[in-house]
Amino acid sequence: xxxxxxxxxxxxxxxxxxxxxxxxxxxxxxxxxxxxxxxxxxxxxxxxxxxxxxxxxxxxxxxxxxxxxxxxxxxxxxxxxxxxxxxxxxxxxxxxxxxxxxxxxxxxxxxxxxxxxxxxxxxxxxxxxxxxxxxxxxxxxxxxxxxxxxxxxxxxxxxxxxxxxxxxxxxxxxxxxxxxxxxxxxxxxxxxxxxxxxxxxxxxxxxxxxxxxxxxxxxxxxxxxxxxxxxxxxxxxxxxxxxxxxxxxxxxxxxxxxxxxxxxxxxxxxxxxxxxxxxxxxxxxxxxxxxxxxxxxxxxxxxxxxxxxxxxxxxxxxxxxxxxxxx
Length: 327
Fold this sequence. Notes:
Blueprint: H1 3-6, E1 11-12, H2 18-43, H3 48-76, E2 88-89, H4 105-127, H5 133-147, H6 149-160, H7 163-195, H8 197-207, H9 210-235, H10 246-265, H11 273-298, H12 303-326
Parallel strand pairs: 1-2
């Protein structure tokens, strides 16, 4: 906010000296190499071939860094000014390397392409501000190298990740997605959808009061969601089972449990009892068929068998709730 009144604390790119441009290029190559190594560390256990691609790209960036340091030493000596891209206004930005833990291999590849494109633009602009012939030549060579990194990355990808490896990595990613999100989410959806049927419909037919029924459904859904979420997160840290982060699994299970119950509780916000009840029953059958679809798609359960098990079980619980409510 204060920069609007007193000016930005960042330097403009055009104000940099030739020594500062070299220093900025050195720090930028260092950062890029570190980001690629962070990507490699993230991928090494599950995707070793992809990790090798990023290790090789980091080696290329380190080679560029050494070339730039040699040029700086020849022209300006050993003391390199401390200047980084965040010190320069309008300079292309990089995502911090700790974000490597949150993005997929495909996103890493896309980010690498953006990094190389930004580096190319930097070197092309830097050439315009440098008069020394040898430095201009080096910056021009590096610009061409950055422009060609997309081809280098593709060649490295073909070298380390043939189609069979890509297929294995895709299957590994799919399996991890199922273990971390689909399984706990499906368990939560089943629990929330089925276990809340009896109390909600029992309350509905016992009281004939849509608001009271909604409150029962809301409390049952939220309570079940909290219970399932904590249970999923607490019983397995994922290290030995390979099921992934307990926090992610707990959130998936808890949220889907709550949604499973709320689906047939929300219709009771409708004041008219029979309209609310018919709508809730329709929602129930939609939920049960959705569960059967997920089981078939991700768990490879035959659809008819999944539908029979889920719809039959849910129908019995629904009937039990209605009978108890009318007792």
